[in-house]
Automatic annotation (TrEMBL):
InterPro entries reported for this sequence: ClpP/crotonase-like_dom_sf, Ech1-like, Enoyl-CoA_hydra/iso, Enoyl-CoA_hydra_C
Superkingdom of origin organism: Eukaryota
Protein name: ClpP/crotonase
One Gene Ontology term from the biological process aspect of the record: fatty acid beta-oxidation
Molecular-function GO terms, alphabetical: delta(3,5)-delta(2,4)-dienoyl-CoA isomerase activity
Gene Ontology CC terms, in alphabetical order: mitochondrion
Pathway: Lipid metabolism; fatty acid beta-oxidation
Keywords, comma-separated and alphabetical: Fatty acid metabolism, Isomerase, Lipid metabolism
């Protein structure tokens, strides 16, 4: 078991620089507050570790990825008598929840979602924040929040429309809460690959891709993730300026020299780890 593991998150090394992060709260990976806080802490810790180059996010539960929010806990959450004061509490609670799930996006290395079985509600928030999404042929998604009387508030409505790019379909899925399977998810661009089989097959496929990414220059891979995230939310010209600033220092990396040498010698390049990042030392 890896140093990153917690009570509800299993982390294991699956190759040089490759981690498998598994949601592990049986029987259905329903998220209570302790679970989602651990989720954010794990990915923030991975972000800080320079030896990690790619991550696969999967479920350790055999029959599904996640049933979403633990409604039993949510119904018993903190309540203030005064609605105005309750609003202050709920806003901060939602922001903390959003931040924990956004840790996937903040993580400097690529995160590949490997989804099987049901992926409901919060599971769509989580997978929308990942860089790459693979699904087993058994996968079934649903933006389920309207069925419990609220608008999805942890990231789906912010990210899913930009991933899919079809506003009519986004509204249909978000307002009807209907299920959509792996083939439809592929057709609309939410996932990039359907893997025939179930959990074992999709995790294996995601790990293969993670190992390929981990063999590349970590400076180039991290830079690519950051520039793509910036591009999503900014104009073309703003992103070109950002890219120029990023590559002004990245092009001075020894990785560039190593890649050129490897190309000439026809040998696989070897790259050093990125520096660790410790917020406490900044």
């Amino acid at each position: 078991m890896s140093k990153f593991s917690t009570e509800y998150i299993k982390v294991s090394e699956r190759g040089t620089g490759v981690l498998l992060v598994e949601l592990s709260r049986g029987p259905v990976n329903a998220f209570k507050e302790k679970f989602w806080r651990q989720f954010g802490q794990v990915f923030d810790s991975i972000h800080e570790d320079g030896t990690v180059r790619a991550v696969v996010l999967a479920s350790a539960v055999p029959k599904m990825f996640s049933a979403g929010l633990d409604l039993n806990e949510a119904l018993g959450s903190h309540m203030e008598k005064d609605p105005g004061r309750q609003g202050f509490y709920l806003k901060e609670h939602i922001r903390a929840f959003q931040s924990a799930i956004s840790a996937v996006e903040r993580c400097r290395v690529p995160v590949i979602a490997a989804v099987h079985g049901l992926a409901i509600g919060l599971a769509v928030d989580i997978t929308s924040a990942c860089d790459i999404r693979f699904a087993a042929s058994t996968a079934v998604f649903a933006i389920k929040e309207v069925d419990v009387g609220l608008a999805a508030d942890i990231g789906t409505l912010a990210r899913f429309p930009k991933v899919v790019g079809n506003q009519s379909l986004v509204r249909e899925l978000a307002m009807t809460a209907r299920n959509f399977g792996a083939d439809e998810a592929l057709a609309v661009g939410f996932i990039s690959k359907v893997v025939k089989g179930n959990r074992g097959e999709v995790v294996a496929a995601a790990l293969d891709t993670a190992r390929l990414i981990a063999s590349k220059s970590p400076v180039a891979v991290v830079g690519t993730k950051q520039i793509l995230l910036h591009s999503r939310d900014h104009s073309v010209q703003d992103n070109l300026e950002y890219t120029a600033a990023w590559n002004a220092f990245a092009l001075q990396s020894s990785d560039t020299v190593d890649c050129m040498a490897a190309f000439k010698t026809k040998k696989d390049p070897s790259f050093s780890a990125l520096p660790n990042i410790s917020k406490s030392k900044l």
